[in-house]
Amino acid sequence: MIGDWSFDELDEAAASIMPALPPVIFDIHAHLYRKATLNVSAEGVFATGPDEVTPDVWRKHVGRQVGVGRLSGALFLSVPQVQTESIDAVNAWVVAEAANCKNAKALAIVAPGMSPAKVEPLLDEDAFAGFKPYHLYASSRPTYDATPEGYIPEWVWPMANDRGLIVTLHLVRAGAMADAGNIGYLREHCEAFPGARVILAHAGRAFHAPNARAGIDQLHDLENLWFDTAAICEPEPLRAILEACGPRRLLWGSDFPISEQRGRCVTAGDGFLWITPDMVDPQAVSPCRLLPVGLESLRAVLTAAKEIGLDANDLAAIFAGNASRVLGLAPKTPSKPPAETQSLYRHARQRIPGGTQLLSKRPEMLAPEQWPAYFREARGCEIWDLDGRKYYDFCTHGIGACLLGFRDPDVTRAVRRQLYLGAYSTLSSPEEVALADRLCKIHPWADQVRFARTGGEALAVAVRIARATTDRSVVAVCGYHGWHDWYLAANLGENDALRGHLLPGLQPLGVPRELHGTCHPFAYNNREAFDRIVTEYGDRLAAVVMEPCRRVAPEPGFLEHIRRRSREVGALLVFDEVTAGWRFTFGGAHLLFGVAPDIAVFAKSLGNGHPIAAILGTAAAMDGAHASFISSTYWTDAIGPVAALATLDKMARADVPAHCRHVGDRVKAIWRQCAQSHGLPVEVPEAFPALAHFEFRHEEAPALKTLFTQMMLDRDFLAGTAVYACLAHTDALVDRYEAAVSDVFALLARAIGQNDITSQLRGPIAHSGFGRLA
User: What pTM value is reported for the model?
Assistant: First the structure.
């Protein structure tokens, strides 16, 4: 039987996965030791290997599995079976060995009862990186049931925090990462000591895969917490971490010399089981030849990465880049503004007219040359730009589209299933029928539905249907409804939604001359203006297109008046619910007011960011759709309907509007309190909390708005003068936002007092109108 520490031609064949590995690899979890200092059995991998395991031994053996030329360095750990009386000497030896190895660092064993003075001689060593506590040193028995307090000296934390040191933890207890006590300890200490860099060995010791899924949701938001892959032989726990945290929090580790042991750790029942050679019957019909653990673990990492769809850049981060950042071997957070993100946007402005595909996404609308135009990852309220800098989104959350938060797991799961099945493009989708039925059930006044991909397109479809149904052409319009010709044909001089909120030089050019005079605006809550349109164009009026509300509530009787007068002249009432949508109440804002339209249009939040829009209407109102040419870019794409159905399911389970009201009320209170505390001229209108906003009441309001955004970016917040609340906004995040706002409002008040506003801007003043055009 082939044993540990060996590597034959069959192992080499199994290592054929090596071409999939990145060219540079850093090992975040490798052990160095001398047998004489260990307290181990005579049969294990530690006892059967070399008497002295140095970096050269590590490089030779791990190099066989990953390619020796790829190994750039390592974080070396002592073996925790070191006898207590030898800890000091072993720590000094490991640090010295790391110092003689290029691009290497080392951790020191710490145990209960140790004085911090024991490690102080190591603090000035360049190779020293932090601490390795271990359960074997706990006084309680069995040690596998020890709490973290039982084996981690408390003095480790302030020392790690002050010096930015590593603390690599091997969690025990039955649930490991899912144990409530472990979770509580990690949250308390990671939050109290944010300068400490905590690595959970063995992916939070997720040898029992369900523990990873049960625990990661309660830990993923801790910014100073990482996970190493050492000896994890199944893709499932690694995939759970990747799904919750992305590829920048996972670190590859060999767990050398466990990597030289033959076998595989598998989830079994309510625990895990190590399959070892002595369990294999060589006389079986199909005997199993076990591989080294290192190869099994590599295969698990690559399988999880493939299932998630990670690319070469992501693998490079897992196998080396993340370790470099954690250990401080890579450059620190880039200077502001992020270089790569801004560089790409400068190029985009030469290649793409306008720079972006949506006016409201242009950095010029918020903080020119500062606002990140592109993002690499987004989950919940967290976003990472191309330079790896993390932000919290307290702005519009995908221009109001991601009401559940970015990459909601339930919606993503439904979309992934559809992608796997393959029936997602050009083929007829039964999900669109299910979605139509669901929407009509939620809106009993509606009978039929057409679908599109975007809100602007859906409004254009709704107007075409209304014109076809009524055989009329004139449209009365209130509010902002997109960029299509039917809407831009309105007289801009009277259109409050657009007047003064376009970029300089931006005009609705290209509107066909025959459409001029077919679209007439009126102001919200202004019955007289609407009645004038009805009086002049009543017998030619095809539709009245308006938002039932956005930031201002309708005056008593206003919507009822619009409903009644529209019916009197035979015009169809079209409610644009694209922005308000489902954030005020489940089913749309018009349900709050008990006024049913002839047609309602939904988009944005309907699919939580996946392209989908719906045009709902009564059978009579939709009659024109049957004979009208409507060929939406929606095609028969199943992704949009699938995402929408999953979004509606989650909205039905969670009271999203109530949560958004709570968050919005808190945010508005923060603005008021901080403004009052610092004497800043800020007005917070009594508007819908889910679309909370404030205004600077100062002659230099545009500059203050830009400076606010710039300063909030410095504090890792995407923020303007509006916050679109979403389900992913937690009270803890709102607390953090409050601290940033208080700090920034104080600085703005000081700038006003010193007449020093524009000089603090790092770029031009932003163009106004972001919140209105969003």
Answer: 0.89
